Amino acid sequence: MSDASMDSTAPRQSRTLLETDARTRRRNAAEKRFRMYGLAAIGIGLFFLIVLAASILRSGLPAFTQTVLSVDFVLTQEQFDKAEGTLFKTKAYEGYFNAALVSQLQSQGLEAEVDAKAAERILGKTGSTIREFYRANPDQLGQEVRFDLSVSSRVDGYFKGRVTRDGFVESRFLMLADLDLVDALTEGGIIRQQFNWNFVTGADSGVDNPGGAGIGASVVGSFFMMLVVLVLSLPIGVAASIYLEEFAPQNRFTDLIEVNISNLAAVPSIVFGILGLAVFIQFMHLPQSAPLVGGLVLTLMTLPTIIISTRASLKAVPPSIRDAALGLGASKMQSVFHHVLPLAAPGILTGTIIGLAQALGETAPLLLIGMVGFVARGYPETFAAGFTDPNSAMPAQIYTWASRADAGFYEKAWGGIIVLLLFLLTMNIIAIILRRRFERRW
Amino acid sequence: MNDMRIIERGTLVNDIKISAKGVQVYYADNHAIKDVDVEIEDKTVTAFIGPSGCGKSTFLRCLNRMNDTIDICRVEGHIAIDGQDIYDPQVDPVQLRAKVGMVFQKPNPFPKSIYDNIAYGPRIHGLARNKAELDEIVEKSLRRGAIWDEVKDRLDAPGTSLSGGQQQRLCIARAVATEPEVLLMDEPCSALDPIATSQVEELIDELRQSFSVVIVTHSMQQAARVSQKTAFFHLGNLVEYGETGKIFTNPEDSRTESYITGRIG
Ligand SMILES: Nc1ncnc2c1ncn2[C@@H]1O[C@H](COP(=O)(O)OP(=O)(O)OP(=O)(O)O)[C@@H](O)[C@H]1O
Ligand SMILES: [Mg+2]
Q1: What is the Cα–Cα distance from A188 to B141, expressed in whole angstroms?
Q2: Is the sign of the CA dihedral A261, A265, A267, A269 positive or negative?
Q3: Tell me: the pLDDT tens digits for A346-392?
Q4: What pLDDT digit, counting tens, does each position of A98-145 carry?
Q5: Sign of the CA dihedral A396, A399, A403, A406?
Q6: Is B43 left (phi over 0), alpha (psi -120 to 50) or beta?
Q7: What is the DSSP letter of A283?
Q8: For residue A147, which of A77, A93, A74 has the smallest C-alpha distance?
Q9: Partner-chain residue, chosen from B108, B124, B161, that has the shortest CB–CB distance to A323
Q10: Residue list, ligand 1 pocket, CB within 6 Å
């Protein structure tokens, strides 16, 4: 270091370009160091992103598969009549079903005991399912019907590695011997894993049935909310920004509005939730848990984001463009709509989509207006019903699942997060594409 | 100052197109124009000269009320075009600006095609009934702006892809396309080469046949070449206004003389 500083004070003698002097070397070293810092920062960011994505996928992907037991089953008219005649009707159906299970195993050359208790632990109450089916479809009596029944969440967990043989604790929900039966059924091809369409298209289930829970209904709920948010916040936000930026005089009042908008952007979302509860539900008597109300609340939240980004992109349009239009005798409106707005459009669009993405992931305000997970039931009626019928939204559904006791819901929550992230990713890609298209190349 | 032949060109006495009386302009507390009286004649080129920051652009912008767009700017006094007060509350500045065109100090083409740049004014004012007429206006304007030959093969190219000087001529053509009665030009030639400059000067001379042209310039030669009347501004005051020939050969005020001989500026 000491001779470097001496170098810098010493008079320059030779000025050959073929040798870098100490000062230049130091500058180059500093530049190199800075680039290393930058690369390191990006590397750390990427590392965490990969860890995050990997852990989400690892925990969430099992939600997309489902363990089912399929049995070809025949119930004759006499069996039906006989079962209906007994006192414990579902018990009778269960007996028939277990018998069918045994015979199917035997036909594959596999020997196994199927006792009623074990079957119930693996499959839940099959009797009532079967009885309901035949009462609804009496014409199927005597025909071979294939039943695909989802296994209990613990057995499902056995397939997905959540439940293992070592360290297994026997309980009234699952015994070690049951796992032998499950293994036999798997070997016979009776139990297998398949893609869980119900998770993608279905609705929430009861707290004791994680296997039947699906995110589809709340995807629809989120979609309806986003429609409300888009239709309300884009025109209102853009109109407000254009007024504030291009037309409003610069005075105390507009300063006040400006400060308030910036503050609104920083208000915690739960405050908007309680406001929505007080105003939209208690005062205006709009229906509870409805995507319409959720959309209104999220609109309030998204507006500041859209206004701020729209004003920023309007500000970025050079004033000389406005002068040029006004100088030609264009009115203020014409100058804004013909020249300023097209130039600001990519920025407005990006801001809007970022605002929407934020709204899509928002949970807290929805919980306050009752858009909790368990209301997203009764699908597909909720699906068709739309804006004013009770529904949930993706993040609220995920939250509901995550807070349920059964370990099966844990995996559903992660699976829900994958779906949510896929939507966010899609929105961002749309933003990028639209931006590319609208951006002027001059 | 050896190019003074212009002074021999006789000037007719024309009607008064613009008359300004007691004009004061303030930018917040900055008194930028102080009590200016001036009468600008029709079918005449009037040059505004003066050192940088003396208020030439500011006064020019008063004439088509472009100062309205600056919040802190306040204009007082009386400015009339054809006897009508342009600051009258009944006057719509938009209508005024269609009549008083402007070319700005910095070229500011729209980020649209060259064609659309020219066609925009005629379109919003409904000057063309059909595409053919519009094409005609575009060609004529580009020719008057002395840029037709350079752009005729690429009318679809963006106006901003032109060079600085070409952009300025495009802006002149754009201003001419709306057929204004008065054309205000703020240093239109500051980015132009001598050839383009002389073309623009020819254009100005041609426009004089039908319009009144006000031009701000830092080039004494240019003022002497193109203008019939010259106004000399200094520190917000209109120091001297009169026949160009007289200002350049026999100025009354010592400040004018110092400026045109290069001693202040
Ligand atoms: N938009 C504005 N806001 C505030 N002050 C301004 C503004 N425009 C001009 N001024 C002030 O008004 C005075 C006159 O400026 P103006 O632009 O009219 O000068 P000019 O004579 O055109 O100078 P130049 O020859 O450099 O273009 C200057 O003191 C300037 O600081
Ligand atoms: Mg100027």
Answers
A1: 87
A2: positive
A3: 889 889 998 999 999 999 999 888 888 776 666 555 455 678 778 88
A4: 888 888 888 887 777 778 888 888 888 888 888 888 888 888 888 888
A5: positive
A6: left
A7: I
A8: A74
A9: B108
A10: B 27, 30, 32, 50, 52-58, 70, 105
A426, two tokens? 């899609």
Residue B171 with chain A: CB contacts under 8 Å: 324
The domain spans of chain A are: 70-194, 216-438
Asked if residue B174 is part of any domain, the answer here is: no
pLDDT tens across A139-193, in order?
888 888 888 888 888 888 888 888 888 878 888 888 888 888 888 888 888 888 8
Q: Evaluate whether A217 touches A202 at the Cβ level (below 8 Å).
A: yes
pLDDT of residue A323: 92
Q: Tell whether omega for the bond before A395 is within 30 degrees of 0, i.e. cis.
A: no
With CA atoms as reference, the chain A residue closest to B110 would be A321
Q: How many residues does chain B have?
A: 265
Domains identified in chain B, total number: 1
Domain at A216-438, CATH from 3.40.50.720, 3.40.50.850, 3.60.15.10, 1.10.3720.10:
1.10.3720.10
Minimal Cα–Cα distance from B225 to chain A, Å?
27
Q: Which DSSP helix (H) or strand (E) runs through B39?
A: strand B30-41
pLDDT at B72 over 80: yes
Structural domain boundaries enclosing B72: 14-107+179-260
Q: Which two tokens stand for residue A414?
A: 């992660």
What one-character-per-residue DSSP string does B58-71 give?
Answer: HHHHHHTTGGGGST
Ligand 1 mutation target, pool B54, B58, B234, most atoms within 8 A of CB: B58
The minimum CA-CA distance between B248 and chain A, rounded to whole Å, is: 32
Of A330, A339, A442, the CB nearest to B161: A442
What would the 3-class secondary structure string for A153-216 be? HHHHHHHCCCCCCCCCCCCCCCCHHHHHHHHHHHHCCCEEEEECHHHHHCCCCCCCCHHHCCCH
pLDDT bucket at A9, cuts 50 / 70 / 90: low
Sign of the torsion formed by the C-alpha atoms of B246, B247, B249 and B255: positive
Count CB neighbours of A71 within 10 A.
20
Chain-centre distance for alpha carbon B51: 17
Amino acid at A233: S
Separation between Cα atoms, residue A158 and residue A165, nearest integer Å: 8
Supply φ then ψ for residue B20, to 5 degrees: -115, 135
Collapsing DSSP to helix, strand or coil, B6 comes out as helix
- Strand segments, DSSP code E, in A219-336 are none
CA angle A44, A48, A52 (to 5 degrees): 170
Closest listed residue to residue B82, CA positions, set B23, B17, B149: B17
